[in-house]
């Protein structure tokens, strides 16, 4: 790279692309909703399509994307009343890992998975009774 050409970093959102983020989120939620351990938590969500879209928006922004109207997501408030435990979050991460690695190149999947692991750690610390 020559000194006059600036180095340009591509955020994860640009490397994955919005369509693939939405596709991976949809496939992941298909798995969550069908999962014997976690599926029941999604049965009470009144508008699953809107929920999936909000989650795709959440990930898009977390990856460096921009939206005209960012979603308001209160992760702690949404998850605290569900009575989730550490094993629920571990199962969530297993399904997430399998999904991103199935539908994305390994380097992109690994980066997204690291973000999901950080979200899970934060939620475990904030919503799981010890």
Feature tags:
single chain; 67% helix; globular; mainly alpha; 130 residues
Instruction: State the end-to-end CA separation.
Output: 52 Å
The CATH architecture can be named as Orthogonal Bundle
The largest β sheet comes out as: none
Radius of gyration: 16 Å
Secondary structure: helix percent: 55-70%
List how many beta strands DSSP finds.
Answer: 0
Strand content: under 5%
CATH class, named Mainly Alpha
Q: Mind telling me the CATH superfamily name?
A: Globins
In total, how many domains does the architecture comprise?
1
Q: How many helix segments?
A: 7
Q: Secondary-structure element order, as H and E? A: HHHHHHH
CATH fold label: Globin-like
Unreliable segments (pLDDT under 50, ≥5 consecutive)? none
Mean pLDDT: 93
| Oligomer designation | single chain
Name the shape in a single word: globular
What structural category arises from helix and sheet content?
A: mainly alpha
Structure description:
- This protein is mostly helical and 130 residues long.
- The protein has a single domain, classed as Orthogonal Bundle (Globin-like).
- 67% of the residues lie in helices and 0% in strands.
- It is built from seven helices and no strands.
- The chain starts with 11 loop residues before the first helix and ends with a helix.
- The model has no long low-confidence stretch (mean pLDDT 93).
Q: What is the compact description of this entry?
A:
This protein has 130 residues and is mostly helical. The chain is 67% helix and 0% strand.
